[in-house]
Specification:
TIM Barrel; alpha/beta; 215 residues
Length: 215
């Protein structure tokens, strides 16, 4: 089954064990997938490689069963070992063409971008999709850049044909406005994994996003 791209689904969920209210990864991921989330990225910045490999193998099994797309953040080796659908990298990671040499033609490569120049470079380098943000200030990453606001999001929606996902501080209360600026797929971390009732929060986010898209 072809991997699902941003734009083909609305919610792009990221893991974060520190925000998951002490619940095991299997519980959190299972709730997200059962609620209809179809892109799940594994992003854990504080684990050793062995634990990340174990958890990614678990997520690969869960996402395959759910028919969802599984993305690994940064760790190209782990993405390859578990047969992930894609890997997501940042501006300071290996260049996209070098990542492509490693992962082959079929694995998705997502690249975080923060400016029009970076978006154009991502297209030219052969990225499959780009991250656009951070839209708002966020504390889920320690090395985060300054918020780009709606200006960059508007520019990408008008000028870039590549699939993209908006990310950074997006919550149920502001996702309608983000969608109204052209984001058909939004990435969320704490808003989803930190919710006590994950399915209810996914539905609330979806409803708000649809309202923004219909404006």
């Amino acid at each position: 089954m072809p991997a699902i791209l941003p734009g083909q689904t609305d919610i792009y969920a990221l893991t974060d064990s520190r925000l998951s209210l002490g619940r095991p990864l299997a519980v959190v991921a299972g709730a997200l997938l059962d609620a209809g989330v179809r892109i799940l990225q594994y992003r854990e910045k504080h684990f050793k490689a062995g634990k990340m490999l174990e958890e990614c193998r678990l997520l690969r099994r869960l996402t395959e069963k759910a028919g969802a797309c599984f993305i690994v953040n940064d760790h190209i080796d782990i993405a390859m070992l578990v047969g992930a659908d894609g890997v997501h990298i940042g501006q300071e990671d290996l260049p996209v063409p070098e990542v492509r040499r490693l992962v082959g033609p079929d694995m998705l490569i997502g690249l975080s971008t923060h400016s029009p120049e970076q978006a154009v470079a991502a297209v030219n380098a052969g990225a499959d999709y780009i991250g656009v943000g951070p839209i708002f200030a966020t504390r889920t990453k320690e090395d985060v850049v300054d918020p780009v606001g709606y200006g960059y999001l508007d520019w990408v929606a008008r000028n870039i044909d590549l699939p993209f996902v908006a990310i950074g501080g997006i919550k149920a209360h502001n996702i309608a406005e983000v969608a109204g600026h052209g984001a058909r797929c939004c990435a969320l971390v704490s808003e989803l994994v930190g919710a006590r009732d994950i399915p209810a929060r996914v539905e609330a986010v979806r409803t708000a996003m649809r309202e923004g898209l219909d404006r």
